[in-house]
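Most newcomers find our protein records easier to grasp once they have seen one. A learned vocabulary of local backbone shapes supplies the integers on the structure line. An example says more than a description, so a record of this kind follows:
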Amino acid sequence: MLYAELLGDFFRLTGELQRRSAAFLAHHFQVHPTHAAPPARSERFHPCFFRREPPGIALIFVPELLAVIALFLRVQPPQKRFPMPLDSLPDAVHFGNVHAHPNDQEASTGPRSFRFHAMQPWPTCSDYTGSVGMPTNRIKTRRRAARNAATRAPAAGGWRERKDGALRILEASALARIPWLIHGFSTRPGGVSDLAGEKVLNLGFARWDRKENVLENRRRFQSAIDARDMMLCGLSQIHSDVVHVFEARPAVPCRGDASATNRADLLLAVQTADCVPILFVDSKNRTVAAVHAGWRGTLGRIVTKTIGKMQMQFGTKPADLLAAIGPSIGGCCYEVGTEVAAEFRSQFPNASEWFDELRTGDEPNPLQWLNMSPPGHQPAPKNVLLDLRKANRAQLLEAGLLPQNISVSDLCTACRRDLLFSYRKDAGTTGRLMSVIGLRA
């Protein structure tokens, strides 16, 4: 506040300086040298050295230079925003519109990117491991529009639904038009597994389910997509960027999160319950791939590495690829810690487009005294919402895929628990969806 008062006095002094006659400056620039010798070093920066007069006040031109700067500041105040709640943009000179509220964490009406909200510490869920947390009511309210979009019909937007009895299988329309291709994204209904009194199509081995039920569910699923005689090639998924190329039938499941092949008797598969399943097909070289992308795989650019493997092994060109991004948890529900946002920002220049508010937890709060909290006791930074589908689509475009060749499902696993499995929403006890792709014999 003292600085603001002194700054105001300086601007009043500026007005007085600006009203002085122009002859004042002309007087100081009259040169009457007595001889040609240059002034001594100690006299070179005194304003009166031209007239060989004793120095008066040193740096007399500095206030006049600052007066010019101050004039521009008054005409166009600086537009830098403060990382604090303000009723409006602060004036460049006086901080008259800074108001402390009883709870200034929620009182801001400024842009959301500069708001700090107090909330309780949130356990971070790493894909399908660790503790599970549910989104807060505030985030639900703020993302209501996104959730409404995520509850649209499964077949909307370039997707269609195939029914086989009680089974409901999703297909990308662009991939379904290829006669020699088999693919499908499983859903929740139509199985024999018992989950909380409901019969579900669980396609992953879990402690709560019997192995016989899972095998029967897989048999029904393969029969529904007309892939009874094909070998189901799953992976031991570890949330990595490891890509396998199958040139023969694998004897045991491989550890990794992506696979590719050009064999006609293999059905590549990935399992998900919130993460992003992505299927590739090269229509010219008759090559397919399946990718499981959680936030770790997305951070490791697993889709880009899968395309690179297909280029090296099969001569695939990215412009010839078709990609289908299946149902996964959406940007309306996928909450991650600020440390995850910091990792994405360090790897991707456009990471801010994938988060609702890109915060890393290191943002300063210089007016912590407004909260009556001692230094070092700031509230834990709230989590952020990450859109994994948007992040993977951006990586596909950077790899060279054409926008019209990428199909993205807008179904959110956390919003559509009637149709899909969600590890987070179901607090860990849930089934597994399966996304498969293969070549017809």
